[in-house]
Amino acid sequence: MSQAGYRFIFHRMLFNVIFLLMLATVLAAPAPATAADMDGATIASQGNGRGAAACATCHGTDGGGQQAAGFPRLAGLNAAYLRHQLESYANGTRDNVIMNPMAASLDERERRILADYYSTLPFAVLPEKSASISFPESEQDDPGAWLALRGRWEKQVPACVQCHGPRGIGVGEHFPPLAGQPAKYIADQLQAWQSGARRNDPLGLMKHIADALSNDDIQAVSAWFAAQSAPIEGANP
Ligand code: HEC
Ligand code: HEC
Fold first, then answer.
1. What pTM was estimated for this model as a whole?
2. Residues 168-210 pLDDT 10s
């Protein structure tokens, strides 16, 4: 081959290398300035600019949720629990038309920092309703309280408070609080386990429990927990 031929091939190769280097630079460039270092509080109040709306719009600026609309409280919930729920919405093991696309638009880092952020917000304290729990005399007196506090052993349903803590204040990573959550939200979750729309609980504890409940049971027990004031700040076990 002539010298000119070698030079041509050499230039082609050089061009290819430079082109590939440029391509690599473009591909490795950080995502457009949107959210690379937004913190949890910022995403919660503004969204991430890539499809996740401001969480505060629905979950409240204090993370306290909205009773009437059935948007759950996130403030003070355990970080690992919150993160698992966001991952479940993102990977489709928990179905919800609003939260599925929202969680899928968050990357892993954003899900983690949002879970951390909400877990550190103080509990939204609702008006203190009953400092002490009154046990009903019979199931007919107050079917919701009966299920919550005593369960239904003939159907292998333990009292809800055995796992969810006294008055449903929540226990650690695995047992989220029910006290003060909107009744509609609690009922929706029990129905979601029945239908299989929520299937992210590794041990399937709630599927078994929800399947044993009638629609009346669900309404009664949801109303009972919704009426329990949220735990006092600092009372998280
Ligand atoms: C348009 C209203 C709306 C917005 C905005 C919204 N959510 Fe939600 N969120 C809901 C609803 C409704 C539910 C209950 C869904 C269900 O029944 O599973 C929910 C449930 C959740 C849950 C599950 C709570 C639990 O106790 O298991 C988490 C966690 C959550 N949202 C986090 C977020 C985060 C983080 C953002 C912001 C990136 C956000 N949400 C934005 C409406 C919203
Ligand atoms: C044997 C333990 C156990 C008992 C008893 C129990 N639960 Fe649960 N519950 C769980 C676990 C574990 C979860 C979390 C599932 C997950 O990680 O998605 C849960 C979650 C829930 C949630 C979802 C809360 C949220 O923030 O999304 C509701 C609602 C609920 N339980 C209602 C009840 C009711 C009502 C009863 C009584 C009839 C009850 N549970 C009894 C273990 C239990």
1. 0.86
2. 989 999 999 999 899 999 999 999 999 999 999 888 999 999 9
Question: Which residue, judged by its Cα, is nearest atom 15 of ligand 2?
Answer: 201
Q: Closest ligand to 183 CA?
A: 2
> What CATH class has 143-227?
mainly alpha
Q: Under CATH, which architecture does the 40-120 domain have? A: Orthogonal Bundle (1.10)
For the chain, domain boundaries:
1-30, 40-120, 143-227
Which of the listed residues 45, 57, 59 should we mutate to test ligand 1's pocket, taking the one with most ligand atoms within 8 A of CB? 59
| Three-state SS sequence of the chain | CCHHHHHHHHHHHHHHHHHHHHHHHHHHCCCCCCCCCCCHHHHHHHCCCCCCCCHHHHHCCCCCCECCCCECCCCCCCHHHHHHHHHHHHHCCECCCCHHHHHHCCCHHHHHHHHHHHHHCCCCCCCCCCCCCCCCCCCCCCHHHHHHHHCEHHHCECCHHHHHCHHHCCECCCECCCCCCCHHHHHHHHHHHHHCCECCCCCCHHHHHHHCCCHHHHHHHHHHHHHCCCCCCCCCC
